[in-house]
Amino acid sequence: MFIASTKHVDASPITNSAIWKRQNKEQYAAIMEARMQREKEEKAEAARIVAEEKRQRDIEKCVSMLRSEALRDDRYIGKRILEAVNAGYTLNSIGQRVCLVFGVTLEELQSTSRLQRFILPRACFSFYAKTEGKRSYTQIARYLKRDHTTIMHAVKRYPSLRNEAKAKRAKS
After folding, report:
1. Other CB atoms closer than 10 Å to residue 103's CB: what's the count?
2. Helices (H) and strands (E) in the chain, counts
């Protein structure tokens, strides 16, 4: 036997949220206004953070450029790089500081080139990133695109390389 249902079935595809929106237009408008205001504030905050980071990078760049002449003198190399490391700088900022000191580019420091003029800057970077920056050999190796054992060797050999460079400069 077939029993027909007495429930009314609405054939329209209107959802509960659409019905609520119609019935509560003013409340829905207030909710949407608050959401739009919150999104505007979030965008403004994000823009402020980006501008602040850019300004900080610009200040660091200017300070580095002003000190570049003093950094070329060998007795300031360790002191200035240590300041960068102790100030909580990243591997990238330590690399930039080393590049300023030795007059090489960051790309050259990170390149796979085996030229003699890149040995001391890479060893210096590795030494300070490991001893003062407390970075692991693997982290330093990834940054310089080298094997971690190469970094271990550079850290061990840097003091003697530096003394050799001082002696060469004293002779000339």
Report:
1. 12
2. 8, 0
**Rg of the chain's alpha carbons, rounded to an integer?**
31
Q: Give the Cα separation of 158 and 121 in Å (integer).
A: 9
Q: How far apart are CA 51 and CA 12, in angstroms?
A: 51
Answer yes or no: are the C-beta atoms of 132 and 85 closer than 8 Å: yes
| CATH architecture for segment(s) 72-171 | Orthogonal Bundle (1.10)
- pTM attached to this predicted model: 0.51
Answer whether 74's CB lies under 8 Å from 102's CB.
no
The Cα 111–Cα 97 span in angstroms is: 17
Q: 87-112, pLDDT tens digit by residue?
A: 666 788 888 888 988 899 999 999 99
